[in-house]
Design brief:
alpha+beta
C-alpha cells in the first residue's frame, strides 16, 4: 500500500449548535456553508434550557480536518455554545470540539465508541510536572486530567444537550460508552 492510500481523504461528523441568539443564526449558516462549500440549511428550534436561544444540528461530509475548521470559524462568536464531531476514519482518529463562553474552545481525540482519548505523552507530562513541582497535590493532578478530558465543557453543555418538545434529538453524552 502506498503512503498516500493509508489515510482517509473524506470524513464526516455532526455540528451541534446547542445555544445561539436568533440574530446569529443566519451568520452561522453562512459560516458553515462557506467552510463546507455546500449549503447548510439548519432547522432551528427553541433551546428549552436557555430562554430566547435556538438550537440546531446538521451532519457534514468533507475533507479530514473539517471539524477543526468549522470549530475555529464558529469560535469567533463568543456567545455560542456548540460541539463539532469528526468521526474516526481510516488512519485518522475522531475528534470532538466543544465551545462554551468563558471556557473557550476544547478539543479532544475520540475513539470509535465516543470516549475521549488522552494520549500517552499528555499523561506523562501531567505526571512529570507533578513530580518536578513536588508540591502538587492529587487534586491538582485530577484537575489537569479533568481539563484533558474536557470535563468543565461537558458539565456546561450537558443541560443543553437534551432536546425540548419538537426538537430534533441527537444524544451526544459523555457518559455513553
Amino acid at each position: 500500500m502506498r503512503a498516500s492510500e493509508q489515510f482517509a481523504d473524506v470524513a464526516c461528523g455532526v455540528v451541534y449548535i446547542h445555544a445561539s441568539p436568533a440574530a446569529l443564526c443566519p451568520h452561522i449558516e453562512w459560516t458553515l456553508s462557506s467552510t463546507l462549500k455546500s449549503p447548510a440549511a439548519l432547522r432551528w428550534t427553541a433551546q428549552p434550557a436557555v430562554d430566547g436561544q435556538l438550537r440546531a444540528t446538521t451532519d457534514w461530509v468533507g475533507p479530514v480536518g473539517t471539524a477543526g475548521r468549522i470549530a475555529h470559524a464558529l469560535r469567533d462568536w463568543p456567545v455560542l455554545h456548540f460541539e463539532i464531531t469528526e468521526d474516526p476514519s481510516e488512519g485518522v482518529d475522531g475528534e470532538r470540539y466543544s465551545f462554551v463562553p468563558g471556557l473557550g474552545l476544547w478539543c479532544g481525540a475520540m475513539s470509535a465508541n465516543g470516549d475521549v482519548m488522552v494520549g500517552e505523552m499528555r499523561l506523562r507530562e501531567i505526571v512529570r510536572s507533578a513530580r518536578d513541582q513536588g508540591r502538587r497535590s492529587a487534586a491538582d493532578i485530577s484537575a489537569e486530567i479533568d481539563r484533558a478530558l474536557g470535563t468543565a465543557w461537558d458539565d456546561e453543555l450537558e443541560p443543553l444537550r437534551t432536546g425540548g418538545e419538537g426538537a430534533e434529538v441527537t444524544w451526544l453524552r459523555r457518559d455513553v460508552g
